[in-house]
Design a protein that fits this description.
The protein folds into 2 domains: about 210 residues, Rossmann fold (3-Layer(aba) Sandwich); about 90 residues, no CATH class. The protein is α/β, with parallel strands linked by helices. Helix 2 packs across helix 12, helix 6 packs across helix 9 and helix 8 runs antiparallel to helix 9. It is elongated, with a radius of gyration of 24 Å. The structure holds adenosine-5'-triphosphate and magnesium ion. Adenosine-5'-triphosphate binds next to helix 2 and strand 7.
């Protein structure tokens, strides 16, 4: 499918690639185009070094979806990479003393002290994982958006995000089992001491709901009629190698890729200086390779976007880029 059809029909479109190649510019231009073609669009930046607000020329508060003034149907969101861990209390920490209602009573007893330390440990990187998890949960809950566009971080970070559903789900699955076991074990002890009835453990429900939406997100991410990943690249040797690697990883993760944007192409004008002519020649050689590998061999649509004289920022420039990305590539 061409980018135009993806933007008109899919639930999610993701833009990714090497640092600085034009991911944010392409994602934002596409989001404006989709919004102006009647789709209620949310653009989400998952890059902790956000530049979505700068690209649109608006201030975005972390974690707050902001309707973009002057563009109907467009909302932008920069995720807050630091989740409030207190929200996840009971999910990230299992404290057996608390389970028994005896917090602080038995720290001095070697066995219980060790157990407390062991079970209240937080896995490394969990705050970032939960920030991503929250996004996936949001995508899976009821909302009014027809299309969600992801402006992703440079490659490595994005691959972690895409493999997150498996990682988080496996981890949450283990946690659920552990909670049930610990809950049963200490619940019995607690009842022995306090004769209290077993209380309902809400954090288990929270875990189960989070797990369910993450598994649904996995299903959506890997469904080619719901999600497609657009790789953005520049016509340079190193970018070809990196694009090949990214494509492999996406295939391994069952994520559909049908379009590749080749951005920042020098145009053929007689005005080019010696330096620009040399760069254009270098780009032309690489473009031939790109066409052979990605179009002929791997059957991807290539979208060629020229190098603009000015920075691509704010509405007019983003609209102009959108024309090349979506309208002129046919
Ligand atoms: N075709 C183009 N012509 C001229 N300037 C461009 C073009 N594409 C992108 N730029 C400029 O290049 C810079 C980087 O673009 P952008 O922020 O979209 O890249 P990115 O891949 O999102 O970067 P990062 O990896 O830092 O997130 C910006 O200043 C943007 O205006
Ligand atoms: Mg960016």
């Amino acid at each position: 499918m061409q980018l135009k059809d993806l933007l008109l029909n899919l639930k999610m479109v993701m833009f990714g690639g090497k640092g600085g190649v034009g991911k944010t510019s392409c994602a934002t231009s596409s989001a404006i185009w989709a919004a102006e073609h009647g789709r209620n669009t949310l653009i989400i930046s998952t890059d902790p070094a956000h530049s979505l607000g700068d690209s649109l020329g608006v201030e975005l508060l972390p974690g707050e979806p902001t309707p973009i003034e002057g563009i109907d149907n467009l909302t932008a969101l920069e995720i807050n990479p630091k989740v409030n861990m207190a929200e996840f209390k009971g999910i990230t920490n299992i404290n057996p003393m608390e389970e028994m209602g005896m917090s602080g009573l038995m720290e001095n007893m070697p066995l219980f002290g060790d157990m407390e330390e062991l079970t209240s440990m937080t896995p490394p990187g969990i705050d970032e994982a939960l920030a991503f998890g929250k996004i996936l949960e949001f995508v899976e809950t009821n909302h009014d958006y027809d299309l969600i566009i992801f402006d992703t971080a440079p490659t490595g970070h994005t691959l972690r995000f895409l493999s997150l559903p498996e990682t988080l789900s496996g981890w949450i699955g283990k946690l659920i089992k552990m909670r049930v076991k610990i809950g049963n074990m200490f619940g019995a002890v607690k009842r022995l001491f306090t004769r209290e009835e077993k209380e309902k453990d809400n954090s288990l429900d929270v875990l189960e709901r989070l797990n369910e939406s993450i598994l649904n997100a996995r299903e959506d991410l890997t469904n080619p009629i719901k999600n497609s990943f657009i790789i953005v690249m520049i016509p340079e040797e190193m970018a070809i190698t990196e694009t090949g690697r990214l494509l492999n990883e996406l295939i391994k993760n069952n994520i559909s890729v049908s379009n590749i944007v080749v951005n920042q192409l020098y145009q053929d004008t007689t005005e080019l200086c010696e330096f620009c002519k040399a760069r254009r020649e270098m780009q032309e050689k690489n473009l031939i390779k790109i066409k052979k590998i990605f179009r002929e061999n791997l059957h991807k649509n290539l979208i060629e976007v020229p190098l603009f004289k000015e920075e691509i920022r704010e509405y007019d420039k983003l609209k102009e880029m959108g024309e090349y990305l979506i309208e002129k590539s046919y």
